[in-house]
Design goal:
The complex is a heterodimer of chains A (156) and B (285). Chain A has 2 helices and no strands. Chain A is mainly α and 156 residues long. Chain A has a domain at 7-111. Chain A is rod-shaped and about 195 Å long. In chain A, 9% of the residues are buried. Chain B has one domain (45-125, 151-281). In chain B, strand 1 and strand 2 form a beta hairpin. In chain B, helix 2 (44-67) packs across helix 3, helix 2 crosses helix 4 (102-118) and helix 6 runs parallel beside helix 8 (247-281). Classes of the chains: A mainly alpha (156), B mainly alpha (285). The interface between A and B is large, with 31 and 48 residues.
Chain lengths: 156, 285
């Protein structure tokens, strides 16, 4: 129970242990713990940031999708208008073409008819003359009666 | 000596006696030959067990420190780091300065004192009986003359050495933080003070007396608290060991209770060390 030199021995041991602990035990352990805490903190912050970025990107994507949709709708609208315009133009052009072709046809028919009429008239005149020649069976001076024939032909 | 009758009181006395070593005119002497050797006696069991346990503490923590990395820690690593963080948190909460010494000091005190207290849970007769057997067979000693006190903290020298170390640090921190003048002023100018110079001259001795007692009481309370708790616990273990078969349940109950005591005493010693050093380095007077 008495204080003895043991106290001095223990005191020296105590000092040596504390110094060893201070130099070789505490700094690496505490350093590792703090470094790990920092690492975890950084990781959590990075994950938070990534989440925020993701949210932002989603919003942006949705916005872009909306833009694209409205643009597409606009383009389709324009295309429809243009198509209607083209159809209208083409209809008018077709109409005109048709009218032109029809008119041309009409004029061709008219020309042909006139030509055929003339031909017919000429043939009828010749036929009339031939008929008259046969009816009369006489010497008839066709030249003397040509005025009558001419009149006949004109009446046809 | 062999004829000495073994009574209960001599049995208890035997358990509570340290193995001693001293140098006499005839060379190194042991145990009963050292009864009169005074201060220059070495308690070799206290020294061996405490230094052995201290080395175990340093070895365990050093091996964890070597493996420490920022990666995922293993279970052993986690356990050691839990203790380190527990001590570190307590130091940070209590000691508001920057010091590379306080935290390792607190860790050393906590774990070392805990390990020394833990020896108390080894049944009281095991190691003394083993030591007696070894002493008798290997060295031809009388087994009653072989002493082995395995709990270093039941030796006042052990707890006093820890308290003395802390006391020296307290004075060192006081002087380092406040200067010698500041330290002396702290001892002399408080708690009583007056503007009157003559009155102050009268008050200074009173202050010195009070403050010195307050200062010295700290290491005394540290040393005696730990020693008293563990010595009493050890004594009760020895008494329980002497009551025959009934000792089994009693020993169990007391051991379970003692698990609390040994951790608590280690923690209290550590906390008070931090608090005292925090007070020593804070300039709040």
């Amino acid at each position: 129970m008495n204080l003895t030199a043991t106290l001095l021995g223990e005191l020296i041991a105590f000092v040596v242990f504390v110094l060893f602990c201070m130099k070789y035990v505490w700094p690496p352990l505490n350093g590792a713990i703090e470094a790990r805490q920092k690492k975890i903190e950084d990781g959590l912050a990075a994950s938070d940031k990534a989440e925020k970025d993701l949210e932002l990107a989603r919003e942006k994507a949705a916005e872009q999708l909306k833009d694209a949709k409205s643009q597409a709708a606009e383009i389709i609208e324009q295309a429809k208008k243009r198509a209607a315009l083209i159809v209208d133009e083409e209809t008018i052009r077709g109409q005109q073409e048709r009218e032109k072709i029809v008119a041309q046809g009409h004029s061709e028919v008219e020309t042909e008819r006139n030509r055929v009429k003339e031909e017919l008239r000429k043939q009828v005149a010749a036929l009339a003359v031939a008929g008259a020649e046969k009816i009369l069976e006489r010497e008839i001076n066709s030249a003397a009666h040509s005025d009558i024939v001419e009149k006949l032909v004109a009446e046809l | 000596m062999a004829a000495e009758e073994v009574t209960l009181s001599s049995h208890i006395q035997h358990h509570l006696t340290n193995a001693k070593m001293c140098s006499t005119d005839a060379g190194l002497a042991f145990n009963k030959a050292c009864t009169d050797s005074g201060f220059w006696t070495w308690h070799i069991d206290t020294l061996a067990w405490s230094i052995g346990l201290g080395l175990i503490f340093l070895w365990i923590f050093r091996s964890a420190a070597k493996k420490a990395s920022t990666g995922v820690p293993g279970k052993f690593q986690c356990f050691i780091e839990m203790i380190v963080e527990f001590v570190g948190d307590n130091v940070r909460d209590t000691y508001h300065g920057k010091s590379a010494l306080i935290a390792p000091l607190a860790l050393t005190i906590f774990v070392w004192v805990f390990l020394m207290n833990l020896m108390d849970l080894i049944p009281v007769d095991f190691l003394p009986a083993l030591a007696g057997f070894v002493g008798e067979t290997a060295f031809g000693m009388d087994s009653h003359d072989v002493y082995m006190k395995i709990v270093p903290t039941t030796d006042i020298n052990m707890t006093a050495a820890l308290a003395l170390g802390v006391f020296l640090l307290m004075i060192g921190y006081s002087i380092k933080m406040k200067g010698i003048g500041g330290f002396i002023a702290e001892l002399t100018l408080h708690p009583f003070s007056t503007k009157n110079k003559l009155g102050m001259l009268f008050l200074i001795p009173c202050n010195l007396l009070l403050e010195t007692i307050a200062l010295v009481a700290k290491p005394f309370s540290l040393a005696l608290r730990l020693f008293g708790n563990l010595y009493a616990g050890e004594l009760i273990f020895i008494l329980i060991g002497a009551v025959g078969l009934m000792q089994l349940p009693l020993h169990f109950i007391w051991a379970v209770f003692h698990i609390l005591v040994i951790v608590l005493q280690a923690f209290v010693f550590m906390m008070l060390t931090i608090v005292y050093l925090s007070m020593a380095s804070a300039d709040n007077h």
